[in-house]
Amino acid sequence: MTDTRPTITAQEDRGASHLRAVGLRPTQQRLALAGLLFSGEDRHVTAESLYEEATAHGVKVSLATVYNTLNQFKDAGLLREVIVHSGKSYYDTKTEAHHHLYDEESGRIQDVHLEVDEEELRQKVDVPAGKRISGVDIVVRLRQSGN
Amino acid sequence: MTDTRPTITAQEDRGASHLRAVGLRPTQQRLALAGLLFSGEDRHVTAESLYEEATAHGVKVSLATVYNTLNQFKDAGLLREVIVHSGKSYYDTKTEAHHHLYDEESGRIQDVHLEVDEEELRQKVDVPAGKRISGVDIVVRLRQSGN
DNA sequence: GTAACTGCAAAACTTTTGCAACCAG
DNA sequence: CTGGTTGCAAAAGTTTTGCAGTTAC
To answer: Which residues on chain B are in Cβ contact (under 8 Å) with A81?
Structure first.
């Protein structure tokens, strides 16, 4: 029996260090998904879309593992969850402060930078005792014009 | 007692006119749910919570009808959907422009009035051709402080 | 070698739908 | 009457979980 494990390329190795840095063992599946997610521009994915993409690229992974991996990446701070629709979870590879445009018809998400003074906003909000603001999300919803 | 239909009170009658005004036949279930939703302060409910409340008040209604009714009320403009969590739909009886505080631990929603200039915001956003902004939602997320 | 991870299928949830029975007008 | 509504159960869609087998180290 020969070793069927794929050769680790330099890029995958960089991925491995990133995963180790956040306490995740760099397994084949995690490396492959991280490669799809983080090797180019910022992206917005759902578990389903990432699963299809992985499969199309010949990555052998199950949908359950994609779900688990997305949540692990989220918990590790590698991804942000974007909540624009009740019934589907979106994940954003851009973790810096920003907001979203959401096309309600196509389900497509776009990043948008809004110069909202979050500090000012926080001061305006009457935060209940024992609570703190963990985030402020702004969603601009889009529809077909003339509708 | 022969006729088991509940007597229509003045309040319920007002409800009936409201329902008729938006094109919905004022059935017993819709009147009862509308009574729970609109007779007091502004409220935030889920299908499940409203179903339990109705049942506790002796209203005979099925969960499916609660879902359908909430959606009909939403389509009629009597309710607004609030999207704060992927996996659960919330409905808000306050339909005027306002935003929300969402306690991620308890799932509780609170209205918050933010003096956000939505017009200004709209102008900052680069809206794709053929699209218009259908809404801007701001969610301030809360967590236990010291966490 | 061993604990962490994966895959699969099943379960858990939320929400929608098909259809026979029921009810408002 | 008659079409709009409802209830129930079943289906559909998304996400989580249990567990046997595999993999990273």
So the answer is: 86
